[in-house]
Structures are given as C-alpha cells and as structure tokens.
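The authors assume throughout that readers already know how a fold can be written as discrete tokens. For illustration, here is how one protein appears when written out as sequence plus structure tokens:
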Amino acid sequence: MDPLSAPMPAADAVDSEAVFRSAAELFGLLATPIRLRIISALCQGEKNVSQLLGEIDTTQPNMSQHLGTLYRAGVLDRRRDATQIFYRIRNQSAAEICRSVCLQYATDTASDTRPGESP
C-alpha cells in the first residue's frame, strides 16, 4: 500500500488537521537548501558555527540566521562551551525526513542520467 494513501489513525486519537498543519510547517522549514545542508552536516555529529562554515559556503550572518530558525523550530539543539556554540540534531524525525527525501531525489536523478548523457 502506498504510504501516502494509508488512512490516518482514528479521529479521536489524532487531530488530523493539526498533523497536516505541523507537517506543512516542517516542509516549509526544510524548503531552503542551506537548511538541508546544515541538517545533513549535523547528522554526522555536533558542530560549531566555524565547522559548519567550513563545510557550507555561506556567510557567518546567514549561517547564524538559519541556525537560529532551526533552533527556534525545535529541529536543532545547542550548547555553549566557553565562547563556542555547538549545534546538534534535536528532532530526529525531521533529520530522517530530510535524509529520506534527499536520498530519494539523488537516486531518482542518478537513474534519469544515462551514460553519455548529461542531466
């Protein structure tokens, strides 16, 4: 059975409107490539801003803005160690959705490219 066509749990168990609203908010949050890159980088473990900037090509103010947005949304957690702030994944479900969608897209894109052709 297609997971998208699976019935929602009983109405008394779950407020389906709230579920769809929350899912839409998460998809909106993940609709920015830099945020997907941040989540991907942090799936490898906790990192500070300097480490993230070494992996992701952006400015420090832009990185801080996206980290703050992900933190306020509950996707990331942070801790301070002296002058450094370290970020890590807090919402494993959000990270898994990110990983799953990006992996599926990469797989689909790779299978669409035939030898000798460009995507």
